[in-house]
Amino acid sequence: MASPRLETYCCPNRDAATQLVMNFQPEVFCGVCIGSASVSLLLTILQLLPKKGQSPRKRPKASSSSTILLLISICDILGGLGLIFRSSVWLGFPGFIANISAVNSTDVWPSVFCVGSAMWIQLLYSAGFWWLFCYAVDSYLVVRRSAGLSTIVLYHMMTWGLAVMLCVEGIALLYYPSLSSCENGLEHAVPHYITTYAPLLLVLVVNPILFRRTVSAVASLLKGRQGIYTENERRLGTEIQIRFFKIMLVFVICWSANIINESLLFYLEMQPDINKMPLKNIRSAALITWIIMGVLNPMQGFLFTLAFYGWTGWRVDLKWRKREIPWQSMSSSTAGENTYPSPVNYQNNIHDSKKISTTDSQQTDDAISMLSEGNTSSDDRITRSSPIYQGW
Hints:
The protein has 16 helices and no strands. The longest helix has about 40 residues, at about 185-225. It starts with a helix and ends with a helix. The protein is elongated. By secondary structure, the protein is an all-alpha fold. α4 (about 65-90) packs antiparallel against α11 and α9 packs across α10. It has one domain (about 5-10, about 25-50, about 60-310): Rhodopsin 7-helix transmembrane proteins (Rhopdopsin 7-helix transmembrane proteins), CATH 1.20.1070. The protein has helices at about 5-10, 15-20, 25-50, 65-90, 95-100, 110-145, 150-175, 185-225, 230-270, 280-295, 300-310, 325-335, 345-355, 360-370, 375-385, 385-390.
């Protein structure tokens, strides 16, 4: 799971709230993290692999949205690998982990492992948050016809730049001036928590607004494509809206426990003694949400693939397919070079005029196809209702 408590636990003088959750059944908690992350990792890879009996989907052009969806899954996979590695070391080498709490220990490797693994997990999940924000921005820009593959470079710069900057800044402020003096006051901890939860809260607040505006823009595009709003257009708009809803639902399910847990732990930190009886229910709620985080945070990768593509099936096709050589097109072009000039081809002129008249409709179909990436039924409806398809 991704929590700033992982970094604060690396401090020898950690606060009582962090001590409470990190020392609560650590073997059980690490086992839960390993199990959840392993299941999510395997199912996510299974979802992304090509399947038998499925023909490659034809797209009008490569889309930045499909690239962003793949990068979100990669961030979840790498973050899950970090969780598995950290929890495995925690379970397999308890003596090594015990040196983290030693104030006067001369062995620096336990602290290096603690800080390094926590930063890896935070960085990858934080990058996934930024990519999800970029997906919402890109969806809106695609409908407005202001985005394309060229914008993916800007998304890379923004995502990785902000993720690395916030992670390094939060860690530097937490461990300043040294690892032994961190967590000596809120001035060390608060900036670290802000940099950790800023991208998460950004997705929770801004993405629904962008998705809502995108759905409204899609409805306007569908109405203006042929001048009528048929049942196909209505269903396609509904599917795009449902897809955005699934994405936000998965995000809320996987990360709402983090916000609740952090609020409870901050409340406990403000108390002079967190072991008092009146705080028993709050302590219990904090421990329960802590275990829930270990289950739900790693499952985000698999649940996102379900929201993006639906269930793709078990039958994996790992056969290497040769790329077909377009002999026919080559021979036809060669034959065209060796023939005499032909008279004016009126049929080609008719086709050219159709291409010009349907350029705007093609752009609309491309934009909607990007938003419905991975939904074959939606793609079929786009093709059937497209004037280009009807004209050819």
